[in-house]
Design goal:
By secondary structure, the chain is of the alpha/beta class. Helix content is 46%, strand content 16%. The two termini are 18 Å apart.
């Protein structure tokens, strides 16, 4: 059998991207050879540039920084560290200004712009995009697969700007035109222009598919963000999370797992803790606002009731999830992307038999209320969050039923079933 060759792009280090991992693994087990192109992490020296996950699934990580930028940063650090280098640099600059003032001034301005302004960000991102495109053109791939808008340019150039065009799939995990950090008309214009060139599009749920049809006039494929079904989870070992955190075995763990980011309701969740009748809130993950949350915990003197655990690998995460009494998914309605989400963590809780306290947004409410696996609350109101948890704490029969419903529902909401829809999209190409 001749295997079709797939080149997939993703804009991260590919350490905890569950959706992309599921898709690549499914393709590699179904007659395709997959090369995933992602970004190297200069802070993690143990993360390899090349990685073979299986005989048909390879990972290539491109450098994050241009080599020229690294050299500039090294020189800049030495100048700051050693006075004699400062003197030499000042002498050189004086001579340059004396001999060729215009060239010297231009050089200094450019260097400062590259090192100390947003130009540095554009330079780095441009370098990553070019390296991804170069890597994507090395082999003669049959299909290109761009995950999210920040890799769509790479997919378009590699698949369409060549003598023999290739197929291109656009897999949009988020609502690119209405999400945190993607404000402005530029992203709408970019997606609206490039989407005309793609061959197929995937979104996470039907709420987002309807939004896409209204925006662009066509209904994309839907591949839900369901996890791989955990088989025999009751018999699998838990992590020693309580021992790690120094809390007693009978203490109820109230869990949030995922990115520690803006708009996920985590400040309100922490503010709700004093209103909880019992339990310790544990947040597993890392992100931009983690230090803010730690400071909030300090201000509220909640060190004994709120604990932080660093990001855990995908393989180990279920061992931690199983410790939880409930799981929280309390997104805030800060953009349509959040409002329309059907987050992976919701199904991860379900898969581990953990009832949820969740926001009442359409896709999430449909599962939580429809399958009776938890309660929906006002995620913007700490009192409402606490009220939902305390109801479960005071209603052991209701809680037991929800736990059993999780076991039943995971037979429906899992990747084993959903990957059939995903693979059919490739077959149609």
């Amino acid at each position: 059998m001749i295997r079709k060759k797939v080149c997939m792009f993703v804009w991260n280090h590919f350490t905890n991207d569950a959706r992309v991992l599921r898709e690549c693994t499914a393709l590699s087990a179904s007659g395709y050879t997959v090369d995933l192109i992602c970004i190297a992490d200069p802070k993690n020296k143990e993360l390899p540039i090349y990685e073979a996950r299986n005989p048909n699934f390879n990972i290539y990580r491109v450098k994050r920084y241009p080599d020229s930028l690294l050299y500039l940063q090294i020189i800049y650090r030495y100048i700051l560290k050693y006075n004699f280098l400062k003197m030499i640099m000042l002498l050189i600059l004086f001579l340059l200004f004396f001999m060729i003032p215009l060239v010297a001034l231009s050089t200094v301005v450019v260097l400062l712009m590259l090192l100390k302004t947003k130009c540095k960000v554009f330079w780095i991102k441009g370098n990553i995009i070019l390296r991804m495109i170069g890597r994507g053109l090395i082999k003669n791939y049959d299909i290109y697969h761009s995950n999210d808008l920040n890799t769509l340019v790479q997919g378009v150039i590699c698949s369409k700007f060549r003598i023999k065009k290739r197929k291109l799939i656009y897999d949009s995990h988020e609502v690119q035109t209405s999400r945190t950090g993607y404000n402005g008309n530029f992203y709408k214009y970019l997606e609206g222009s490039l989407i005309k060139i793609i061959d197929s599009m995937i979104v996470e749920n039907h709420t987002r598919a309807k939004y896409n049809k209204k925006l662009y006039g066509f209904y994309p494929h839907v591949v839900h963000n369901y996890p791989i079904k955990l088989k025999g989870y009751k018999n699998k070992k838990k992590s020693s999370l309580r021992k790690l955190l120094g809390i007693s075995e009978d203490e109820k763990i109230l869990l949030y797992q995922g990115g520690i980011q803006t708009g996920r309701g985590l400040k309100n969740l922490i503010k709700a803790v004093p209103l909880f009748n019992e339990g310790t809130l544990v947040l597993i993950g890392d992100g931009k606002i983690k230090s803010e949350l730690e400071e909030l915990v300090n201000q509220m003197n909640l060190h004994q009731r709120v604990k932080f655990v660093p990001k855990v690998s995908l393989n180990d995460l279920p061992k931690y999830t199983k410790n939880a009494y409930v799981g929280f998914q309390v997104l805030n309605n800060v953009c349509f992307n959040h409002y329309s989400a059907s987050s992976n963590k919701l199904f991860e809780y379900m898969s581990s038999g953990v009832p949820v306290i969740a926001c009442g947004f359409p896709e999430i409410k449909k599962v939580v209320v429809g399958e009776r696996i938890g309660l929906c609350v006002d995620s913007h109101d700490p009192t409402s969050i606490a009220k939902g948890l305390n109801y479960l704490l005071n209603s052991p029969d209701v809680y037991h039923d929800m736990k059993q419903n999780c076991i039943t529902a995971k037979e429906i909401y899992n990747w084993d079933e959903e990957k059939k829809q995903f693979l059919s999209i490739y077959e149609q190409l």
